[in-house]
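It would be a great kindness if you could assist me with a short task in structural biology. The matter concerns a single protein, recorded as an amino acid sequence and a row of backbone structure tokens. The record follows directly beneath this note:
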Amino acid sequence: MSQARTLAEWLEHPPARDGLLSTEARHEVARLATLLGLPGPRDEAWRYTRLSGLEQEALELGVEAPLPDEHQLRALTPEGVTLDRLVVVNGRPVPSLCQIGPLPDGVGIGSLSAMRQAAREGNSSAAQLLEHLDLLSQSRQRAFSAINSALAEDAAALWVPDGVQLPRPLLVLSLVLPQAGPLLSQPRLLAVLGQHSQATVLEAHGGFGDKAYLCNAVSEFHVQAHARLEHVRVQRDSVAGRRVSGAFFQVMAGAQARTHTYTLGGRTVRNEIRMELVEPGASGEINGLGLLKGETHLDNHTHVAHLAPDCQSHQGFRTILAERSQGIFTGRIQVAKDAQHTDAVQQCASMVLSPEARAVARPQLEILADDVKCTHGSTVGSLDANSLFYLRSRGIPGDLARRILIHAFCSTQLGRVRASEMVNPLDRLITRTLADHA
């Protein structure tokens, strides 16, 4: 059984074996994480989110959990979609539960440890994949990325060679299964798409049981020139679960990356999404939907960096807040001096269903170029009384009328998912979740 320690103690004495990084590298990053420290009240980026008591809390790491049962796997798996599946439990890939069909030559799907072994045996694709590890996660500036890099034991990995289209969506199923005490789970995903390649990646995260846990997830996506990435992340944590997730994207010339984050539960959830448009003609989208109730606290932070001319970006977030939930959105558009002809849009809308719920929006622009088009907008409101009256006057019961209007509010986000095979499963998931919000 794993010993429970505080984060500071884990960083002072990380596991004495290779993990995500070599033993020497993980000790170096652990020292850096200690110097960075956990975000505190004076950190403006964490102004609205407190992970109270985390410094003193003893957390288990490297817990050997029993394999998830079929009910748990089905609960996180989209219905009616043919896909390849990687399963991660408490941060560790589980090869016996993975289901991978026939793949084009050169495609690599599996654990990072398996990729590392393949590289030792002369697999050049695996070697190239490993060269991209930890380049985007900002582990030199971001404390939780550094903690993940220092303490994660393995990762899920995807390599798509130049000119190859992934034949099916890849599902990365990440489960948190606490056993005795509070658990620290450190899932990691590294994906590299070669030039002119295409892939759809679905991350499905979930926690089970009533035990407390902290899931510190990091995902890195390298999208090479003229590649196409569609990324969907669904997070369904338990009421005792806390989640800090970082998703980092690097998009090269003429490439397109689209990411959609659906947050449907948890006690405290902070999503940080950073996208760098590095070369001319790159485009990116960051979309999100939060369906919150109880005392769930959701803090979305986005940062799109336009670093080259002729790039486009779109950010769109919508949040439903019921009961005593809180939703915070901080979205940043950064336009470098040489990034002329930038076209950037940012929109945030919140629907508040309870007088005790709270919504905060903080759009931010940093523009150093002069030939750009950048817009942002934010709205906070409640259900439209006239629309509700209209539906009820047509004989629709009040609860159903409310669900219809809330679903219509959410549908805008579904419309931005280009992977058509994912739309209906996501719609069904949202419909089931909304039954508890109206």
About this structure: The chain is about 20% helix and 40% strand. The chain has two domains: 4-279, 385-438.
